[in-house]
Amino acid sequence: MENHGLITHLRHIDVAMPNFAEQRKFYTELWGLTETAGDTGISFLAAEGSPEQYVVRLRQEAHKRTDLVAFGAATAADVDTLAAQLSAQGVRLTSEPRPLDTPGGGYAVRFFDNEGRVVEVSADVTPRQHRKIEAREPIPVRLSHVLMNSPTPEATVAWYIKHLGFRLSDTMCLGSRGEIMWFLRCNTFHHSFGIVRGPHAAFHHASFEMRGIDEFMRGTGRMRRLGIERLWGPGRHRAGDNTFSYFLDQAGNTVEYTTELEVLDEDTWHPHLYDLREPANADQWGTANEMDEFIAAKSHNDVDPGLFVAPPM
C-alpha cells in the first residue's frame, strides 16, 4: 500500500557540524538567511520570503551529520494517519506523534527512512510573518529542494514513493552506466526532494529559490566576489528547467541558488529519462563550467555518522 497525498511540502533541512560559528556566519552574513531564534550551539534560520519558521537549522556537534529533513502535512490528523500507516508498514519511528517545541510549535512524527536518515512530518506550525522579496534583492525566497546521496538509490526512491507518497518527475542517466539521479515531488513543483547515486548515504545539496533571474545572478556574483568556493554554474538544468549555481558552505556541504523551478500539471505530466552525455541535459544554456568527477565527488560529501541515530533535539 502506498501513502498518497499526506505530504504537502518541504519545510527545512537540519544539519550539525563542529564549526558552528563559521556556518552560522556563512548562512546569515553571506548566503542571505535570517536568524529568528537560537541558543548556545543552535540556530534557526529563515528565508525572508517564506512563511516557514525556519528553512535551515544549524546545531553544533563533534561530527558533521544530517540531523533530519522535514516536510509538512495539512493537518494533525494527517500526521496521525501517516504515523499509523508507517508503523503498520514496519517503518521505525524515532518518536510517536507529539507537539513540537521548536519555533512555531506544531505537531509532528519522526522516523527513519530505509537508509537511516531521520525524516520529520509536521502540521499546525504557526506561519512566520514574511515579506515580499524586492527586485534586485539577492537573498533566498524559500527552500526549494533537498537531494540526498544513496548507495542503493532504486530502493530508496521506491521507499519514498511507497511510504511518503512522492511522485517521480524525471530521471537522469549516464548512458550505459545507468540511472544516477531521481527527482521526486510532493506537490506541483517539479521536485522538492531527490536521490543521487553515490558511494554512501549522505547529504548531497540543498537549493534555495531566488526571486528571479536577476536576483539569482546577483547572488551568484556576490558569492564569487566573496571568494566562496564555487562548484558548478551558473547554468540552467533540463530536468526542472531551473537555474543553478552550486557552492560549498563552511562544512563542505553543497548549497545551490536557483530560480524558476518548473511547475507541473499533475494530470498530464509523464516522467522523462535524460542522458547527461548530452551537454544540454545538464546545462541548457551552456554557460556553466563542465561537470567532472571532482565536482561530483565534492557533492558526494562525507560519510554521515548519524544514520539510524536520532538527533538529540
TrEMBL record:
**Where would I find the VOC domain in this sequence?**
9-124, 142-260
* Any matching Pfam family: Glyoxalase
Tell me where on the tree of life, at the top rank, the source sits.
Bacteria
What InterPro entries does the record point to?
A: Glyas_Bleomycin-R_OHBP_Dase, Glyas_Fos-R_dOase_dom, MMCE/EMCE_epimerase, VOC_core
State the protein's name. Answer: Manganese-dependent 2,3-dihydroxybiphenyl 1,2-dioxygenase
EC number of the protein? 1.13.11.39
Q: Name one GO molecular function term.
A: biphenyl-2,3-diol 1,2-dioxygenase activity
Q: Which gene encodes it?
A: bphC_2
Source organism phylogeny: Bacteria, Bacillati, Actinomycetota, Actinomycetes, Kitasatosporales
Q: Which GO terms describe its biological process?
A: L-methylmalonyl-CoA metabolic process
**Organism of origin:** Streptomyces platensis
Q: What class of enzyme is it?
A: oxidoreductase
Q: Which keywords describe this protein according to UniProt? A: Metal-binding, Oxidoreductase
